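FORM 12-B: Structure-to-Sequence Request
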């Protein structure tokens, strides 16, 4: 609905030759279907081999606490906001949906949503759900006969939905039951509650929930229908990428955990430690430590369950792409647990059966022909990276962090071949923001520095970092014309300087090199500022130009050409 939705981030990516791939390549399947303009642009005009996404996990889509894709409602299923109504036959066939969509008041509301500089999740979610409800009503009326719970499919499209429901089995049934129960409780109770406050018979999945689902079959099927539509559309996008001979296509991202009040936590509560949060110990990046507010998995309960949750997560997230990034992959080895309600400084590490977990990842990777990247930033013991390398998981190398002990930038040759190289991440400044100190200014306004002296010290360190970058570019003979190692010659991040940094990464032996859209567009603001939720507009800011304008933006075409010339797909 919102054409400038920002929580999906596109990467332009270039890989080494197929003979160097750590895992079997996906088979290219040629199927009919409309080619997505964005996919076609990335694959044909930019020469990209990968389009990278932030997690597409299901969210509540209510601001400010339920919009981060890294604190999802469920990692097993997809966010309905990404459904393209134009590709939904029953939406076009619904007279009521078309009348409401074309209503001047509704159109005015959509224009207002598209013109804002930030995504209004609540309003967008309401508008999208309204349209999906109307589309579903038409679908049920035309494709099924009988009364619930004995609805009978009458069309091929309905039979496809039934096959999807059958193949997904109990997890999807429970997810839909949770959605229906939560929707019902919101209507009954005026105050906001969570599943922890539900009637006793519904506190855990069981026979009462099963009976409830039978009584509400039509609404249960609505939430199953949403997941079927979202899954089919996502699979079609990946098929389009394969038709264009993109070596990998979609590159997904799987979050570390899920919201303790969401569907995933309710369904799999028996393997979660709901009395704890996970996070990170104090370090130079976060002196007070980090608490991510997500319940950790109990390693003993996970093993006793036959690793059901992990297997289901991997299969669901691997099936519609050629690569996936596992957020905080160190959790396969150890995870920092924090007693609920206590500061991060009181946490401790809990160890996990990493041999079993990596074996499962390897098996599912081979089964689905999916390349695996492990986000191994932060405090990472050497032995962890050694084990990941043995499992042929690509290391995640961020330009800002790749330094020697003295702070100097590592030369391209020091990057491991079994890695993915990228300038920055959603949690870090864009290149333009880094160079201007925009992130430091924002942190100062939010009171992150104890005093002016601390702010000044951070700025001085940033100047030294910029000088180190210029020095590294000089060593590789990549400095743009007119720029020297003197910072005065590079007062701002220019297109040429941005290209030079990406060429630096292109010279690494890394298997994949990615470029963020934000950097190509010269965006100042980063997507997320860690440690802030309601004090900063995380995950809501839109790009400076609409997506359809990006397809004609010369800056992105130039960046694509620079990378393609240095690392052609072959």
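FORM 12-B RESPONSE
SEQUENCE OUT:
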């Amino acid at each position: 609905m919102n054409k400038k939705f920002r929580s999906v981030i596109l990467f332009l990516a270039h890989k080494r030759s197929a003979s160097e791939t750590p895992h079997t390549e996906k088979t290219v399947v040629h199927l009919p279907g409309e080619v997505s303009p964005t996919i076609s642009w990335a694959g044909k005009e930019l020469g990209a081999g990968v389009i990278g996404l932030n997690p597409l996990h299901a969210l509540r889509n209510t601001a400010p606490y339920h919009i981060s894709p890294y604190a999802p409602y469920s990692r097993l299923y997809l966010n309905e906001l990404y459904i393209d109504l134009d590709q939904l036959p029953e939406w076009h066939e619904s007279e009521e949906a078309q009348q409401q969509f074309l209503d001047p008041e509704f159109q005015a509301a959509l224009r207002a949503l598209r013109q804002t500089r930030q995504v209004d999740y609540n309003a967008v979610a309401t508008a999208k759900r309204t349209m999906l409800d109307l589309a579903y009503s038409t679908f049920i009326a035309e494709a099924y006969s009988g009364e619930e719970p004995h609805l009978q499919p009458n069309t091929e499209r309905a039979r496809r939905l039934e096959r999807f429901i059958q193949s997904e089995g109990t997890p999807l049934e429970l997810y839909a039951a949770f959605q229906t129960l939560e929707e019902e409780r919101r209507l009954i109770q005026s105050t906001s509650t969570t599943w922890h406050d539900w009637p006793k018979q519904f506190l855990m999945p069981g026979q009462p929930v099963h009976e409830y689902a039978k009584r509400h079959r039509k609404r249960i099927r609505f939430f199953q229908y949403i997941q079927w539509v979202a899954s089919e559309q996502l699979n079609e996008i990946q098929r389009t990428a394969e038709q264009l001979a993109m070596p990998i296509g979609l590159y997904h991202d799987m979050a570390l955990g899920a919201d303790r009040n969401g569907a995933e936590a309710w369904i799999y509560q028996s393997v979660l430690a709901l009395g704890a949060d996970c996070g990170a110990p104090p370090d130079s990046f976060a002196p007070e430590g980090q608490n991510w507010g997500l319940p950790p998995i109990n390693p003993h309960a996970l093993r006793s369950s036959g690793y059901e949750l992990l297997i289901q997560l991997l299969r669901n997230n691997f099936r519609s792409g050629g690569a996936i990034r596992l957020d905080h992959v160190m959790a396969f080895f150890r995870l920092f647990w924090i007693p609920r309600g206590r500061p991060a400084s009181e946490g401790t590490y809990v160890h996990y059966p990493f041999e079993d977990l990596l074996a499962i990842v390897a098996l599912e990777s081979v089964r689905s022909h999916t390349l695996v990247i492990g986000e191994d930033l932060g405090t990472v013991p050497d032995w962890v990276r050694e084990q990941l390398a043995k499992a042929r998981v690509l290391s995640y190398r961020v330009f800002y962090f790749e330094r020697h002990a003295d702070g100097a930038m590592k030369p391209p040759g020091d990057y491991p071949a079994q890695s993915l190289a990228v300038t920055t991440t959603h949690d870090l400044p864009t290149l333009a923001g880094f160079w201007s100190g925009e992130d430091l200014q924002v942190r100062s306004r939010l009171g992150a520095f104890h005093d002016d002296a601390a702010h000044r010290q951070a700025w001085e360190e940033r100047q030294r970092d910029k000088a180190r970058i210029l020095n590294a570019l000089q060593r590789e003979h990549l400095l743009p014309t007119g720029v020297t190692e003197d910072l005065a010659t590079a007062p701002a991040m220019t297109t040429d300087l941005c290209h030079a940094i990406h060429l630096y990464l292109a010279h690494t032996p890394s298997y994949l090199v990615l470029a963020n859209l934000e950097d190509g567009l010269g965006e100042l603001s980063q997507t997320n500022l860690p440690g802030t939720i309601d004090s900063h507009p995380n995950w809501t800011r839109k790009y400076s130009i609409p997506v359809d304008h990006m397809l004609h933006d010369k800056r992105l075409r130039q960046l694509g050409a620079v990378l393609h010339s240095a690392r052609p797909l072959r």
